[in-house]
Amino acid sequence: ANKHKPWIEAEYQGIVMENDNTVLLNPPLFALDKDAPLRYAGEICGFRIHGSGVPFEAVILDKATGEGLIRAKEPVDCEAHKEHTFTIQAYDCGEGPDGANTKKSHKATVHVRVNDVNEFAPVFVEKLYRVAVTEGKLYDRILRVEAIDGDCSPQYSQICYYEILTPNIPFLIDNDGNIENTEKLQYSGDRLYKFTVTAYDCGKKRASDDAEVEIQVKPTCKPSWQGWNKRIEYAPGAGSLALFPSIHLETCDEPLWNIQATVELQTNHVAKGCDRDNYSEKSLRKLCGAASGEIDLLPVPSPTANWTARLSVHYSQDSSLIYWFNGSQAAQVPVVNGPNARQGLSDHFTLSVWMKHAVVPAKGRREEETGICSTTQQDGYSHYSLAVHGCRIAFLYWPLLESARPVKFLWKLEQVCDDEWHHYALNLEFPTVTLYVDGVSYDPALIHDNGLIHPPRQEPSLMIGACWTEEKTKEKIKGNENSTDTVQGDPLSIHHYFHGYLAGFTVRPGSLESREVIECLYACREGLDYSDFDSLGKGMKVHVNPSQSLLTLEGDDVETFNHAIQHVAYMNSLRFATPGVRPLRLSTTVKCFSEESCVSIPDVEGYVVVLQPDAPQILLNGNTHSAHPASDFEAPGGVPLFPNLQITCSISHQVEAKKDENWHGTVTDTRMSDEIVHNLDGCEISLVGDDLDPEREYLLLDRALLQQQGLELVNTSAYLTITGVESIAVYEEILRQVSYHINHGAALYERKFHLSCTEMNGRYSSNEFTVEVNVLHNVNRAAHPNHILSSQQFIHRGHHLPAELSGHSLASTHNNPNSNHAFSFSFSKVVPSAATVIIVVCVGFLALMVVLGILRIHSLHRRGVGQEVPGAAEGGHTSTGGKDSDMFWDDSALTIIVNPMESYQSCQERAAEIAEGRATEGMEDDDDSTDSETPDSPDSNDMDDRHIIGKSDSSHRY
Q1: Which of 290, 304, 307, 735 is least surrounded by Cβ atoms within 10 Å, i.e. has the fewest?
Q2: Domains of the chain as residue ranges with CATH
């Protein structure tokens, strides 16, 4: 009976040579059966191999001993399969010749390894290798040649060494195929080297075909940036301008695996760190929609705000105050009560400050420097402070000194210690705190709420530039000491002094500035820009710092890097950008595959020139002369100075005209003017000549109207100014309502006013618009002879009135039937007393001349009568000479016209001369030819004296 199963080893290791079929096994293949020596049951009939696609078979060599053999069905190929694994099982012959009740052994694992034969020779990857190198350098590796072997075993498949077959060349090749030069190559010598290399595998089989190598020597190359301009001009309003549109990096064929470039724009010399809006702080807050209510903690020194009087003061480019804190000074701000109290900030406020701070090198640990320190009282004492420590800025807030725990918010920012101007705005809405630096928001990097902090004294205090120590002394400051210049030994125990510049320090209690307002107020309007992120190549990185003054690029491909840096741009969003130079620097760092031969890229230094923007032309137009009766000026509303004022703003810019064939293709430039919608930030009305006399005259303007528009008014005897940013339409409406008023009875006749307006904090000014105002005073005449012409007939603008009567005109007169040979004047009450005296004197002299004229008429009449008798006797008739003479004087009443507007001195001199001449003629009884000459004669030297002048002498002004 077949009681037992055959037995074989559990695992076999076999080796077969490539291109052979006999497998050598270890241990040999034998199967044993305990039923031996029984026939059939104790004999091994065969072996079975299990596995699909196994290229081997097992045969029995001796049934009695169970010896077997494994062989390949066909020659095996090492390059196809290096190893084969399968299982084998032995079976006996059963209980009879028919093989009934056959038993099988367990399955054993067989591993067969195919041994390689060095049948393949090395083959080079390329038949020809070309490379170019720069002269004068020793390279660790100029290039690498490579050969491969088709054999499967490490012994025959690996290339053991390479060999240069061409003799006497300055090159070596190592076992890895790297070729290097043994001496510096010169472009002046051999410019091209050609040689042959071969390869051997570890079976010492040489390559079937050798490889050719060509090395070209190039002249010295200087790695650098090529294709850039040192001067870059930027026209305001141009948007984004590429700084390096054609730049590319020359690496002199040095392979690089990393490139880093930094573009730095220097704008710290422009205003406070960069170009911002040119408006004043107050105007800018209005334009950005910031609500009012902020409290200035560092105001201009004054009797009511004297705590800044001892600080060192500087002025910025925009004329704003800058305070210097030298590390031993502080300003104690008085705490007051009322609606403008600087206390009661609670847990809801905004701090805003301009700061320029640098880390002062000092031995040991740097001390914290306090910008503001405050203890307030509102439902208990609370405390806060803002300080800098190295490059960190910290805000400490203690809601309730009695119960709550202090919280300290920390930010680590490079802006804190770069010695440049930055604006900091801190919004506290406890427990949320947000810090804005130059309009960019930052969340706290770290928050501490478990530090050991000594509580300050429980007393309302506010200090700028330092802080007091913990509660040790209870000494209080006297109420009248609003300012302290603290030094060592101060009873307040002051410490943590600030060292740097502060400006525009304000606090806004009870409300927060919005993100949009802060960005509008303090964000930089110029900087570096990169907007071509869509076409940014693979592996490229671009980073721009918050102030847009530093842009960093990183990549690993030269061509991709060139494309990226060509899109780095400068942008200035201001319509009227601040002109000037912005230095520019491009720094580059590269990493090469070979550190020894790695190139160095020199820096690129240039500058952006922001051109002078096309200045806005602010033009003031309107009537330049105004004449009104005195009663209009005496009215409560006065007389408007600029009733039809028109303000326009335009920009003139250069344009290129079209080519004209008549001018042989020459191109001429012209300028175009485009009207723009713009704002004004101030207008001033000044006087020409003496200042206004407040007791007699003044300018009127409704102050409430200005307050509605958020404008400020300053009205003095020398000028009237309106300040605040507003549209041109608003300024037009307000200026049209400015009136000139004089008091009743004031002897004022002429005034000249200058009007000018400015824009952008006085950066641009308008033309000087001059208005001349004449005050017309009425003169009423009681009577005059019929033949005297009315005043309008004597007005002649080519002559001038005396200075004291400038601007006056005579009113129409009425006939007086009771006076044919004499007349008098009656003046209105508005004529001043001095002018009345002069006119009365002139009238007196006029009456004297009338009397003299009448006497002369009678004298001539008697003379004619005395000569009548002799004439009759001789001629037998009456002489007609005397009658004609008598009729002449009767028909031509004596007409003497004297300008009553002459000065007293000229009137007196002329009257004396005429009186003396007439008296002499009467006494001598001389009938001179001048006797018949009347004032109406065109030959009279006094012709001009008969005109009443309507315009005053411009040399006399009031």
Answers
A1: 304
A2: 11-115 (2.60.40.60), 123-218 (2.60.40.60), 230-270+525-610 (2.60.40), 281-522 (2.60.120.200), 616-776 (2.60.40), 782-952 (no CATH)
